[in-house]
Amino acid sequence: MLARFFQSRVCHSFAVGPHRCLSSTKLVTPLPINRRKLLYRSKQTGFLELDLILGGWAEENLPKLSEIEVQEYEKLIHSEVPDLYSWLSGQQKPPEQVDGNIFRRIRESVLNGTVNKSKRND
């Protein structure tokens, strides 16, 4: 019975220590607070399509980004929502200050259909 508990989804948030959570397959270190805030903001833009695009991309990529890339993503995420969607979908050309490495990576995943669709209310 205890083995089933540790294999269940309930166990994903079961605390093991101050910096780790128990997962059914491995120990997972949570994201630093600034990246968690960015992940939340990515999933809660107020524009469903953008929530799915940015939330999915952020879930997959935020843990792997360098601090410089995180800063670039943070600047991007604070753009006006309708403009950001227009730029990412290719409807409008992005301004120079937005058209950086992170923006191109997100747009490429959108245009290729490889962006991981996020669950909106995680």
From TrEMBL:
One GO BP: tricarboxylic acid cycle
Keywords: Chaperone, Mitochondrion
Keyword field contains Chaperone: yes
Domain of life: Eukaryota
One cellular-component annotation, GO: mitochondrion
InterPro entries, per the entry: SDH (IPR005631), SDH_sf (IPR036714)
Name of the protein in its database record: Succinate dehydrogenase assembly factor 2, mitochondrial
